[in-house]
Amino acid sequence: MPLFSKICGYYARSVLIITKITKKSYCKTIFFDTILNMKAIQKSMLKAITQFNMLPKGAKVLVAVSGGKDSAALLWHLAEIANWNSYLLTLIPAVTSPLYPDPAWEKRLTFLNALCASLGLTLKVLSLDSEDCPEPVCKTGLERCTLKTEASESCFICSQLRRKILFRETYIEGCDCIAFGHHLDDILTTALMNILQHGSCEGMEPIRTYPQAGFKLIRPLVYVPEATIIKFRSMIGWDSYTCSCSIGAEGTRNEYRIRLEKLTEGSIQQKRNLLRGLYSNHLVNKFSEETVL
After folding, report:
1. Among candidates 112, 102, 106, which has minimal Cα distance to 74?
2. CA angle at 25 for the pair 22 and 30, rounded to the nearest 5°
């Protein structure tokens, strides 16, 4: 048991979950550092939820998880506020089975099942149907198909296939929202790619509505820097599972992530300034309405 398990209120539940997952005790310094990190993520997440009116009371939310630190942190913190009187959320964590040979899949699945069980949730595993898949991918598999395409196109195909599966499940479950774990650095990397490649100052929107489908896409971690999530993962003792596709790991997006770090010199404040400029001019009052194809 942790040394400070007698603390009452909100953090008592967090401490018990930390202990259950990591099976460790915590000294005073590490424990309170972890609490401060949790508060930082929660504060930024609640700011986004409130500012962009992401979650109506009683919302049913499908949370897209992958086993990576970002979606795991999102699920954790949404679970922390789910029973608050101002939210009363119903959470459905869902993961798509890999669209390419993934040696870490079983480990990812084990981690996600353990995480969901510790939060009192049940993980849904979604698979790709043949009717969802473009013919070249169906015949050769995504990994071999990408040998004939550009890396950026390959990642686009993969993300669109996974998103289609998740969107369909969101619709079938009658959810009000689907939540993605994109954070501050993800938003800015996308914006930088669009500016330099297409001359368009656009990024991932914090919220996007799909009125014909009856749900909206939300990104509650839009104000949370990746460095804060990395610290949270390290303190809580999670393993981190990232995309194991060689094309994704070495692709265009990774190159622009490096460019972003050079541009901002790794400064979180400079990244927040970039986001403020991006959203003030383009996104705060411009939430797109689309039809799920």
Report:
1. 112
2. 95
Rg (CA), the chain: 19
Beta-carbon contacts of 261 under 8 Å, excluding residues fewer than 6 positions away, are none
pLDDT in tens, 91-112: 999 999 887 777 888 999 999 9
pLDDT digits (tens, 9 = 90+) for 43-66: 999 999 999 999 999 999 999 999
| Domain range list for the chain | 53-283
Q: What is d(CA 186, CA 226) in angstroms, rounded to the nearest whole number? A: 8
pLDDT per residue as tens digits for the range 249-283: 556 778 888 888 888 888 888 888 888 887 775 45
What is the pTM (predicted TM-score) of this model?
0.78
Distance CA 288, CA 290 (A): 6
Which residues, in sequence order, are CB contacts of 258 under 8 Å at separation 6+?
A: none
Of 193, 218, 232, 190, nearest to 69 (Cα)? 232
Cα 206 versus chain centre, distance:
12
- Number of C-alpha atoms within 13 angstroms, CB side, residue 108? 22
Q: Which CATH architecture has domain 53-283?
A: 3-Layer(aba) Sandwich (3.40)
Percent composition of the chain: helix, strand, coil (DSSP 3-state, to 5): 55, 10, 35
Q: How many CB atoms lie within 10 A of CB 83?
A: 11
Neighbours of 214 (CB within 10 A): 13
- Phi, psi dihedrals of residue 234, rounded to the nearest 5°: -65, -45
Q: What is the DSSP letter of 98?
A: P
- Beta carbons within 8 Å of 228's beta carbon, 6+ residues apart: 37, 40, 41, 44
